[in-house]
Structure formats: structure tokens, C-alpha cells
């Protein structure tokens, strides 16, 4: 093979190698950004929740007794969670930020959910204020009538009805590895950062639960 022929074949090979190099570099950047939380946005979300580590440390000694199943979490911003309020108007977790939230997912067909609802109502009556709220989100498919009738039947007065008939909230939290069944309960700080998660029921009207919420509020 002549030198001229060698050069003719070498030039395309060099170009292909250069393109492959650029693609590899782009892939490496994508992987780094994905692992850090989608680039700058992920870094911002992590920074927003940095202060929540102190809250996790404060509540950890109170995760015992009736609320021992609540697991402390490495603080992170939750994805957008949307639902409707008792009047059927759009609402969201972000709209309720500014206070510590105990977010509970429930359904009328879930027996443990039905059993713990009066305790959640009692917790809201005892501790609900400008700094804390129980946000019970019903995920029954269909209309609001069944969950409304159930809450009226058991005498729930303090809890506001929040609804997600699409189960979108549950499915979003399931993808995050947080919700495996019902009831599922999440402790969220005033900035919207997850600090605790639990799958299964708890005695939310117990002294253990009140002590946990008091610690989360910083009381």
C-alpha cells in the first residue's frame, strides 16, 4: 500500500475517532450530572436541604415506641406532589410549605388507614398550628363522595380533606422508593425537605407521636 493510499484511509479514521471522543466526553458529563442530581438543579436542591440534617438529628432520638417505624431520611427535596383540597381546588405540597408537615396517604379500602384516621385527626387537633399540619391525602379512585362520607361517619373534624383520585402522588413516591403500600406517612420540614418516612400505621395520638412532632417543630 502506497503512502498516499494510507493517508487517504487514515483521515476518515481520525475523524471518526474524534467524533467518538466527543461523544464519550458528553456521556461522562451526563453521568456526572445525573449522579449529582441533574446538574446545577440537583446541587441547588441538595443545598436547600442542607440545614435539614440538624432536624433529622433532633428527631432521631424520638423515633421509638409507637412511632419506631418512622425511619430518618437523608434530607432531600421531594418531587412535585399535586392534589386537590376539600373544595376540589388544585393544591400541592409546595403550597403548604412554611410549616412542618406530616403527609399521610390513605384510602377507604385500606383497613389500617381507616383505623389510624381518628388518631391523625386527634394529632391535628392537639398540635396543628401555624408551624405544623397533618396533610392526609386520600387516593381513592373516582369521586370525592366516598372519602367524604367516611370522614363524616367517623367524626373527623380537624383534618382537611385532600384528594388525589389519579394515585399520582402515591406512584411518584413509589418511584422514589418511599411508598410501598398504604398507609404511607412522610415527615417534611418547612422547606419541603423529607426528613422521615414510614410505611404502615402508627398511633398518631400517642405521647410518642406528639414528642416526635414537637422535636420536628423545634419546640
From TrEMBL:
State the Pfam families in the record. Answer: Redoxin
Name the coiled-coil region(s): none
What PANTHER family does the entry give?
Answer: PROTEIN DIPZ (PTHR42852:SF13), THIOL:DISULFIDE INTERCHANGE PROTEIN DSBE (PTHR42852)
* Location, primary (coarse class): other
Q: Please list the residue ranges annotated as the Thioredoxin domain.
A: 72-218
* UniProt organism field: Xaviernesmea rhizosphaerae
Q: Which UniProt keywords apply?
A: Cytochrome c-type biogenesis, Redox-active center
Q: What is this protein called?
A: Sodium:dicarboxylate symporter
Q: What is the lineage of its organism?
A: Bacteria, Pseudomonadati, Pseudomonadota, Alphaproteobacteria, Hyphomicrobiales
InterPro entries to which the protein is assigned, alphabetical: Redoxin, Thioredoxin-like_sf, Thioredoxin_CS, Thioredoxin_domain, Thioredoxin_ResA/DsbE_sf
Task: Spell out the subcellular localization from the entry.
Answer: Cell envelope
Top-rank taxon of the source lineage equals Bacteria
